[in-house]
Write a structure and sequence with these properties.
With 402 residues, this protein is an alpha+beta fold. It contains 15 helices and nine strands.
Length: 402
Amino acid sequence: QLLIVRRGDSWQRQFEPGMAAFPEVLSGFGELSEVKHVDPKVCGGGRGLFAAQKISVGTVVTSESPFVLVPTEREAGETLHAALARAALTLLSKGGAAADLVRQQLAVLHPQELGDLDEGTVERCYQTHAEALTKLCEGPTGAGVSRADALRLLLACQFNGFRSGLYCRLAMINHHCNPNCAKFTPDSGGPAALSEIVAVRDIEPGEEIVISYLTPFELSWARRDETFREQHLFPVGPSPFSPALDTPANPRLESLLDELDGAPASADERLQRALDVEAMARAQAACGMLVARVHKEVTRAILQTMDKTPPDAPLVLQLVRSTQTLLGLQREYLPPQHHELATTLLDYHNALEYALANFPNELYTAFPAELGNFRMASRTDYKARKEGEKIKKLYSQQLENT
């Protein structure tokens, strides 16, 4: 049996006497970072990844391929973590060295045993996951798997799973609502392509390396806390943002944004729905990060439409307004060299460039204070392009592959 033991404030591997040495599944972090103990009352697993030296923005802190992939075919109503647990059991049932490696990596994930959680939590989890547990234990790969083992596996997948799969080392990285790193998963390169953890600002030695588990980034605090408690059985912690940015929950607006983000639709339908949500946000005088999310969706929808049909002046001006508003808000809650700022800056540049080439007078009239003439607008366009390109260079490989 593989054991993880704490020595001092670091985590090390230990094997029972007589057991063959397993591969070092928690090695591979390199010289930049190391796993250390953290207060389990703050973080469920009691572990975290910390900078061993200064890490500059744009640096790949660590990378890893998933050892369990999300099945390409999901059963009706199957959650992500149930699908991962099913895939893990399939791999384990095949036996051999590959199954041994999967078992070793599963062994280090939280919870390492159900005793890591309090009895009340375990009992609630048995009830919540009753149907999924039955399917796992009675499925084609569940022979000999007890409900306790199935629940531990299911919770390990629930607490540690990503949409791109299940990782061993990346699972050591904790959540923060204002993280110093981002996870990049390539769209190309095969299903097991490396996911990379990249610094979005400079990180000092001894500082914990954190990412956001929640997407999209611009959720209200109440929504973040609700989602985090549901998936990790833990409170998300206090908001790192000002009250002006982290506005109260707006369930109706967030529900519409969820539908817009997840539902398949034609480009024209998506655009109309995005504009309707933007009008609703204006009517409600919504503010802060929710407004940023609204304008992010509007920007995506307009750009998707522009790929097929040349836009008219009102739509181009809306693109300028949305990218301008989004950029102003992102500067308040993102680090100054964050990759999302590069995306917004270059979208703003493209919007201004298109407006200057096709609808200059309409642009000057709509934005007299900032873009009221050719000189003002072209200067703003130039600055947005230069700043966006400078930031993008820090993440050139990641942004090209995602």
